[in-house]
Amino acid sequence: MSTVAPAFNNLRQSIADFSVAEIAKKFGTPTYVYDMATIEKRVADLAAFDVIRYAQKANSNIAILDRLRRLGVVVDAVSVGEVKRALAAGFSIHGDTHPIVYTADVFDRAALEMIRENGLHVNCGSPDMIDQLGEVCPGANITLRINPGFGHGHSQKTNTGGPQSKHGIWIDQVDDCLRRADLYNIAVTGIHMHIGSGTDLEHLSQVCGALEKVAMNVGRTLKMISAGGGLPVPYRDGQEYVDLDQYFQLWDASRKRLEAHFGHKLSLEIEPGRYLVAESGYLITEIRAIKKMGENTFYLLDTGFNDLARPILYGSYHPIAIAHQTPKRHAPELDVVVGGPLCESGDIFTQEEGGFVSKRRLPAASVGDYLVMEVAGAYGFVMASNYNGRYRAEEVLIENGKLHSIRHRESFEDLIRGETIPAVS
Questions:
Q1: Which of 107, 209, 402, 424 is the residue whose CA sits 20 to 30 A from 149?
Q2: Residue 62 parent element (H or E)
Q3: pTM of the model
Q4: How far is residue 327's CA from residue 330's CA, in Å, rounded to a whole number?
Q5: Helix (H), strand (E) at residue 63
């Protein structure tokens, strides 16, 4: 696969052969749209790995989970709710590759009870989890999620390794974890190491080396090693994909050295989230106001950070395109700030980490034109909220030339479900 990223165009009239205006008129705005053909391509990219385990926190709609299951992908879950989502999408609890693995740094009480009842495989991220699991499921098999002492990420908030991260078992505590496991006759059958979003091959070689050291310490009970996730996707012109051939070769070399040492085969997993779904996703919005504020021109939308929180959380950049109601091949461009309707000054989509407002060069547009935020299939809807009393967006899947609504837009009844007004005493 070429590592060269596609160039983004700031004019977009269609998504997978459906006009943006047609989708907006059919489903309203804001609406998330996912192109299944893109997801299928990204799954195919990773075919060299023995197991592709989808980190569903990136996008957990059960239709997406169902389609990934049909493509032979298994799933990672970080909560009871995600386990139940996977079950609703047709995944089984038990199987040779553990179709569902519970990965976390803590057990809440509901999760521990579900694991006790169902024998779910656990990827333990804290030493205390081994004791807690051993008390209810002695003799279980587990995976250890290791923090190698260093991390990587486009934001400190996405860096999942190193001393500032809460994730994983500190590498110096592995011996203690093995002793805890022995007390409950628990076998460590897998090692997982995920150090953050984004990677480079030089850094990856350090991760592989750290995993090998831990694996040697764990010993011959190992059946699997996991490369973790964090595969980046391009959000800007000029960015590149990771060279997946070299990426696989680094992990495969580690796997082969361990196999030679242990004298038996090891399965090599990868755990992508963003990589499988990010590029498939688009958030279609409508421009509802255009106004000048000093030297700034604002395009104000009918969607806010309640629908797409990544910019306000991480200063994340999303490609943005205009879809005019009357299609245009060219339009004059201007520097604009793109914001939403929320009663929050931070409700700005063109901002950098730290909340610094920036401008984007976009085609001139009118109220009623559509604005599309791209590469929005990961950590988009899953982070959505009802802040400011907003209804969460519709979700639509494009598959085999058809549009499918896979989540209806919320209603007022959804907004207040579960709330009650107690009687006045």
A1: 107
A2: helix 62-70
A3: 0.94
A4: 9
A5: helix 62-70
Continuous segment of H or E residues that includes residue 246 = helix 244-262
Strands 121-124 and 74-77: unpaired
- E-assigned strand segments in 135-208: 141-147, 169-170, 187-192
Positions marked catalytic: 343
Instruction: Give Cα separations from 303 to 82, 246, 339 (angstroms).
Output: 26, 40, 8
Angle at 131 between CA 127 and CA 135, to 5 degrees: 160
Per-residue pLDDT of the chain (425 residues; tens, 9 = 90+): 457 777 899 999 999 999 999 999 999 999 999 999 999 999 999 999 999 999 999 999 999 999 999 999 999 999 999 999 999 999 999 998 999 999 999 999 999 999 999 999 999 999 999 999 999 999 999 999 999 877 554 444 444 456 667 889 999 999 999 999 999 999 999 999 877 655 678 878 888 999 999 999 999 999 999 999 989 999 999 999 999 999 999 999 999 999 999 999 999 999 999 999 999 999 999 999 999 999 999 999 999 999 999 999 999 999 999 999 988 888 899 999 999 999 999 999 999 988 899 999 999 999 999 999 999 999 999 999 999 999 999 999 999 999 999 999 999 999 999 999 999 98
Strand 18-19 relative to strand 14-15, pairing = antiparallel
- Structure token digits, residue 417: 């479900």
Residue type, 50: D
What token pair was written down for 229? 């996730």
Structure letter (DSSP) for residue 139: T
For residue 141, list its beta bridge partners. 187
Residues 6 or more apart in contact with residue 303 via CB below 8 angstroms: 29, 30, 283, 285, 340, 341, 393
Q: Are 188 and 178 in contact (CB under 8 A)?
A: yes
Give me the amino acid identity at 358. Answer: S
